[in-house]
Design a protein that fits this description.
There is one protein chain. Helices cover 31% and strands 23% of the residues. The protein is of the alpha/beta class. A hairpin with a 5-residue loop joins strand 4 and strand 5. The protein has two domains: 34 residues, no CATH class; 88 residues, 2-Layer Sandwich (Nucleotidyltransferase, domain 5). The chain contains three helices and nine strands. It has a five-stranded mixed β-sheet with strand order 6-5-4-7-8, covered by helices on one side. A two-stranded antiparallel ribbon has the order 1-2. The chain has a two-stranded parallel ribbon with strand order 3-9.
Length: 146
């Protein structure tokens, strides 16, 4: 690109104003934000990752962070949020403690697809023993192959 020189005064030369937009800083900022979101998004997921059973009559419930997530993994371990419990008998006390902090929260029980039925049933019984009646069972929607 050649610069056009204008002479306003003798001995003073002013180059023409360049009107091109430099998008490199914008692209740098957008890429950094993209990387940050890619790293942070998996950490936002609530509770422990389990493969949920698939059902036809699945009702969608938004994950709004207003639930106490109880997870039973495939090997029978019980978690409240991401905190592992050493025994299922501790589940009732842990959930009651969470309920004291926020009484409006419901209990969302996620049992792994490959977990033994007895492990999930013991978790439900532990919740029932401390008089928690509103338990939501987590499932995924069964997609129909056509």
């Amino acid at each position: 690109m050649r610069a056009v020189i204008q002479k306003d005064r003798p001995g003073f030369e002013r180059p023409e104003v360049k009107a091109d937009i430099n998008v490199t800083p914008l692209v740098d900022v957008v890429l950094v934000l993209l990387i940050i979101f890619m790293v942070v998004t998996p950490m936002i997921a609530s509770g422990v990752a389990v493969d949920l059973p698939r059902t036809v009559n699945h009702s969608r419930k938004p994950d709004d962070g207003k639930d106490i997530i109880v997870s039973v993994s495939r090997d029978g371990r019980v978690y409240v949020g991401t905190q592992a419990l050493s025994r299922v008998e501790e589940l009732g006390r842990a959930v009651v403690a969470e309920r004291r902090k926020a009484p409006h929260k419901t209990v969302f029980l996620k049992g792994d697809l490959r977990a033994q039925y007895g492990a999930v049933r013991r978790a439900m019984q532990a919740l029932h023993d401390v008089n928690i009646q509103d338990i939501v069972l987590g499932t995924e929607e069964l997609t129909k192959a056509r």
